[in-house]
Amino acid sequence: MPEVRKQSFYIYEICDVANSDKTITKIKAKNNVGEYPVYAATINKPFAYINFYNNEKPCLVVINDGAAGCTYLVNDNKYTIGKHATGLIPHDGIDIRYLQKVVEPIFTNIAKGYGLGNLPKADILNTKVEIPVNKDGTFNLNLQKELAEKYSVIEEQRNVLLQKRMKLQNMSVILPEDKNIKWAHPLVTDLFYPKGGNADFTFTYIE
Fold it and tell me: From CA 73, how far away is CA 53, in angstroms rounded?
């Protein structure tokens, strides 16, 4: 792959902030039940459905409180952003899936720095992120989509390995009760040849 050209941008330079309504509570939602979802701090799940909306473009939702820094995509055409979340609507030329993959680790690290599970909107908007660009400085949308797909494959494989790890941790071996059998207790290194992983396989290396 040819050298990837990237340029750093503040989030406020490449995204608009989705309209939000911080007054929506369970009681207000109950009194205004409708078909339009309200997205807040619950990942990938509407907080409620109401009879009005204030956004008409897909966005990336960033959680401000609770699971601060975590993100999820909203693909509805009509929806509202509620409390404890900030919606980011990417400008033309920015792939929303790529944006999510690169900003979520940055956001979660910022939130950890506060130590209180909090990520203010101002910090979100003033975060810098690298975007692939063409030689003329325009956004390289095709490369963003390609990288987003590769990141997704890596994430899927990681989840598969984590599931296998959990299964191994929950496994137990029942030994036969036979007084004539003697058991040895060798070290793992006596049974296997240790081989470390390759630290070169990072997002930067793959790109």
Answer: 17
Contact in structure between 88 and 124 (CB atoms under 8 Å): yes
Residue written as token pair 């040895």: 184
Which residues touch 200 (CB under 8 Å, ≥6 apart)?
Answer: none
For the stretch 170-183, pLDDT in tens is: 777 676 677 777 87
One digit per residue, pLDDT tens: the chain, 207 residues?
456 789 999 999 999 999 999 999 999 999 999 999 999 999 999 999 999 999 999 999 999 998 999 999 999 989 999 999 999 999 999 999 999 999 999 999 999 887 767 899 999 999 999 999 999 989 999 999 999 998 888 877 887 888 888 888 877 767 667 777 787 888 888 888 888 777 776 766 666
How many other C-beta atoms are found inside a 10 Å radius of the C-beta of residue 182? Answer: 6
d(CA 64, CA 22): 12
From CA 17, how far away is CA 21, in angstroms rounded? Answer: 12
